[in-house]
Write a structure and sequence with these properties.
Blueprint lengths: L1 H28 L9 E3 L2 E7 L7 E7 L5 E9 L6 E6 L4 E2 L4 E8 L5 E11 L5 E12 L5 E3 L3 E8 L4 E9 L5 E2 L4 E3 L6 E5 L4 E2 L4 E8 L5 E8 L10 E9 L4 E3 L6 E4 L3 E6 L4 E7 L12 E2 L2 E2 L2 E3 L10 E7 L8 E8 L8 E9 L4 E10 L6 E3 L1 E7 L7 E5 L8 E5 L3 H4 L7 E3 L2 E3 L13 E3 L4 E3 L5 E5 L3 E6 L13 E3 L1 E2 L2 E8 L8 E3 L5 E5 L4 E6 L14 E3 L3 E5 L4 E6 L2 E3 L11
Parallel strand pairs: 2-9, 11-19
Antiparallel strand pairs: 1-3, 3-7, 4-6, 4-8, 5-7, 8-9, 10-12, 12-17, 13-16, 14-18, 15-17, 18-19, 20-21, 21-22, 22-23, 24-25, 26-32, 27-28, 28-29, 29-30, 30-45, 30-46, 31-44, 32-43, 33-34, 33-39, 35-36, 36-37, 38-41, 39-40, 40-46, 42-43, 47-50, 48-49
Length: 589
């Protein structure tokens, strides 16, 4: 009994003690296990930014989700990349009541690109110490520009030759750094028919846009293409825009109201023609007012310009006319105008000078007819020659392709100044068309130099083309065929006299003593040229390269267009008609 009494007493004491311990534990941590509270924090914050650029702040929430107050003892950034994260606003330096929270703002910045990680750590010294952490994840990238064009190509559609059309493309910098823009350029075989203008400047800010405008101004009909180059510091983007366009033909017009100044336009060339004298007294190209003829060389009838210098014909009064034809089959629309001089008691031949233009063709094609009837007096033709007195300022070089057997190569010569070529100063004139460039006095170290037209002649055996050019324009005589030349390929021919561009379909000089004599009572008909013509084309120090026709046809000048980069002209088209379809003058023309 005694033992049982003590055992029961001890058992009651143990129960009381156990209850006391349980109550003590609940008092320490609270009924839910949080006597000193419990800290929680946002799970993670993610930052993305450029190198050397701070991000906008992000907010982490620290909360006491226990039932007792918790005093925050410290807020800090810890971990491997702690130095790349920093606090911008800390509102957690106080005691948090149960259920209460506070915020901490964090930013990220790095001077190098890469991925970074750290932790926002909140500590409390309450009880045994509480810790709450938010994972911080940061990514830094190098800022780069991004060039974005609103279109990768510009199409101008169909534009009438000798007019213009403008189209635009927008350039936007969608990158993260300024876009640096270098000098714009247009390249390609037809680059000189496109021009650009821009609002872009040399730099384009992030998210900014600018406009690039391109104007297409064709001279002749056909299809055109080029490339707009926009060099910039975006190494990943396409930096050019493709340009395509088509030039449609324009109508040929002629106004004969004033006999001394017919007005002719084919959409490319504007021509002033003196029908009284049979000469072109004015010639401009496109919308330019620059005169391509020499306006300083005149006579009583005005500017000589482009004319024929013939001999062996008598005096006669000319009658002018023209024929305008629409396109038909392979024959393009053309305007053929002429002046006919009838035979008479002093003139053995009825001869006609012809000029031909086609729509949007920067060329003037020429041919000459000399007819002798049985009732005409005897006669002899001494010379049939075309001379184009071109501008003294626009054309500074002569250029010829295979002019002679001694020079079977292209020849490029710089013309002396006109005051030197035609100087009449004492001691300058040596002989016909030959000038001493220095006169009596030579500069120190100089040898004597001469300029003569007789350096500019050759045989037609190899001759293809010759002309003059300057910084803007070129004017060329092209020889597609030698068939209508007297003496054919063995003929010697005069090319230049100073600034004169020349072509002789026939001459009885220059070591070629042939004659064209016709006796009274006999008949003859002679077509000379059109292996001669003048072609003007926009050029910038470019030269022609033409191939002679080997077909038994009458061919006009090839239309030559410049290839600026290579300084070589390429053929665009050739207008050739078989002899039975060539636009020939009818009786009286």
């Amino acid at each position: 009994m005694q033992t049982t009494f003590y055992q029961n007493r001890l058992l009651r004491i143990w129960h009381v003690s156990a209850l006391f311990v349980l109550i003590s534990i609940l008092t320490l941590v609270g009924c839910d296990g949080h006597k000193y509270g419990s800290l929680t924090a946002s799970s993670s914050l993610t930052f993305n930014t450029l190198t050397n650029t701070s991000t906008y702040s992000q907010t982490a929430i620290i909360e006491n989700n226990g039932q007792s107050s918790v005093k925050i003892s410290s807020i800090s950034v810890t971990g491997t990349n702690a130095s790349d994260f920093y606090l911008t606003n800390n509102l957690c330096n106080s005691t948090l009541s149960p259920g209460q929270s506070c915020t901490v703002d964090v930013s990220f910045a790095s001077s190098v690109a890469g991925s970074f990680e750290a932790y926002l750590t909140a500590r409390s010294n309450s009880g045994s110490g509480l810790v709450a952490q938010t994972e911080l994840i940061g990514t830094a990238t190098v800022p780069v520009p991004k060039a974005v064009f609103s279109s990768s190509s510009l199409s101008f559609g169909s534009v009438k030759a000798n007019s213009s059309s403008t189209s635009s493309v927008t350039l936007t910098n969608s990158g993260t750094a300024a876009l640096t823009i270098d000098t714009l350029s247009i390249t390609g075989s037809n680059a000189n028919f496109f021009t650009d203008s821009t609002t872009c400047g040399s730099s384009l800010a992030i998210s900014a846009s600018c406009t690039i405008s391109v104007t297409f101004a064709p001279i002749v009909t056909g299809s055109y293409s080029a490339t707009l180059n926009v060099p910039n510091n975006d190494s990943t983007a396409v930096q050019d825009v493709t340009l395509t366009a088509t030039a449609a033909p324009t109508a040929i017009t002629i106004d004969t109201t004033k006999a001394s100044d017919w007005k002719i336009s084919n959409g490319v060339l504007t021509i002033d023609f003196n029908s009284n004298k049979g000469r072109i007294s004015g010639l401009t190209m496109g919308s330019s007012s620059t005169q391509l003829v020499d306006t300083t060389n005149t006579d009583s009838s005005g500017i000589k310009g482009f004319y024929m210098d013939n001999s062996g014909f008598g005096s006669a009064t000319g009658t002018a006319g023209y024929d305008s034809e629409v396109a038909s089959g392979s024959v393009p629309a053309y305007l053929d105008w002429w002046v006919t001089y009838p035979s008479n008691s002093a003139n053995a031949y009825t001869y006609t000078m012809h000029w031909v233009v086609t729509a949007d063709d920067p060329a003037i094609h020429v041919y000459f007819l000399a007819n002798h009837a049985s009732t005409d007096i005897a006669g002899s033709i001494g010379q049939v020659q075309w001379a184009f007195r071109d501008s003294l300022t626009e054309f500074t070089h002569t250029y010829s392709v295979n002019p002679s057997v001694n020079n079977p190569v292209p020849l490029d010569l710089t013309l002396p100044d006109s005051t030197e070529m035609f100087s009449t100063a004492t001691g300058r004139a040596v002989q016909d068309a030959t000038v001493d460039m220095n006169g009596f006095t030579l500069p120190d170290g100089w040898t004597r130099q001469f300029y003569t037209k007789y350096d500019h002649d050759g045989y037609e055996y190899l001759h293809k083309a010759h002309g003059l050019y300057g910084d803007t324009y070129g004017v060329w005589t092209v020889i597609p065929s030698h068939e209508s030349m007297v003496a054919g390929p063995s003929k010697q021919n005069l090319f230049f006299t100073g600034n004169l561009l020349m072509m002789e379909a026939y001459s009885n000089h220059l070591d070629n003593g042939m004659t064209l004599a016709t006796a009274s009572g006999s008949t003859s008909s002679r077509l000379l040229a059109p292996s001669t013509s003048v072609s003007t084309a926009l050029a910038r120090r470019t030269q022609p390269r033409a191939q002679p026709s080997r077909q038994p046809r009458i061919c006009t000048t090839m239309l030559l267009l410049p290839a600026i980069a290579s300084r070589v002209f390429t053929m665009r088209k050739r207008s050739c008609w078989p002899l039975d379809t060539y636009p020939r003058p009818v009786a009286g023309r």
